[in-house]
Design goal:
2 copies of one chain form a homodimer.
Chain A: H1 4-8, E1 16-22, E2 25-31, E3 34-38, E4 43-48, H2 53-61, E5 63-68, H3 74-82, E6 96-98, E7 104-106, E8 111-123, E9 126-138
Antiparallel strand pairs in A: 1-2, 1-5, 3-4, 4-9, 5-8, 6-7, 8-9
């Protein structure tokens, strides 16, 4: 019998830093629940915890940015994934620039997307945010995106899974 | 200036065969828009075209199965991705078994998930289906999941992207 965390590692995901800003208040956090949903319009879905500090900023700004991490950027994934934006200015030590929406884009990321929220629904212990991609570019054409399955238990998520399906 | 299809290839996804069944009527199709959203309850999100034959069956059954393809299963991805369930019984030539929900699971897949629909929202030219995972197992513990970015334009999706963001 395989464990539930091992099973879910078979759903392939990337690793991203989601940037949010409202005026001079800004934050960024590591996420893996990002996927494209629609082609025309260009829509992506983002899974996010409503308990997260950034969730408030995301809604104040009605938007967010996605910075795609490369396979070599485990330290950045950890930096933005394991500290709280409530106590640490996580962007102070990492080069970034504001995108067209003002949301922070990591300068060393492989690619960026900028998004405007179009819907937000309840999804168990997370929220599912649907957003339109209004801008974006590849910054480093030959990089390989990081795979979430390669990060092990970096985010401490193993303990969040139930022991059984029922 | 990078193209929009190239940019979106930086959102990492796996490749799956989604199986649906209602009694003796069944179908399966290749999908890449699958991600975990919630830990407790265990919820996944699936992007699906409402024009798709399987979308009707998915709602009749109120559920679906996810078979995770390995990096070696490009032929299966193509088989279930490029034919219409309206004209071909795509499951006739591929070994499968019914899961606990009756939905077809591919025997040669790396892992399986079985899901019950809990919500379904409009998402541009697709629907975003939220579903609870009620069963699942790893079938081949040492396999490597297929990456959507490795399938090139297998699904013909490049022509679906707009030329510009606005």
């Amino acid at each position: 019998m395989s464990s539930i965390p091992e099973l879910f590692r078979h759903l392939t995901a990337g690793v991203y830093v989601i940037g949010v800003a409202n005026g001079e208040r800004r934050d960024a956090f590591t996420a893996s629940a990002v996927m494209q949903v629609s082609f025309s319009p260009l829509l992506v879905a983002l899974g996010i915890s409503a308990a997260h500090e950034s969730y408030t900023l995301l809604h104040e700004a009605d938007g967010f940015a996605i910075s795609v991490l490369s396979a070599q950027q485990q330290e950045l994934a950890k930096h933005f994934g394991t500290q709280s934006g409530r106590t640490v200015d996580k962007l102070a030590s990492t080069p970034w620039r504001p995108g067209v929406t003002g949301a922070p884009l990591l300068r060393d990321a492989l690619a960026h997307f900028e998004c405007r929220v179009v819907n937000d629904i309840e999804a168990g212990d997370h929220r599912l945010v649907l957003a339109r991609v209004i801008d974006g570019a590849i910054a480093r054409p030959n990089g390989q995106p990081m795979l979430y399955a390669q990060t092990g238990n970096l985010d401490g998520s193993e303990s969040l899974y139930p022991a059984t399906f029922s």
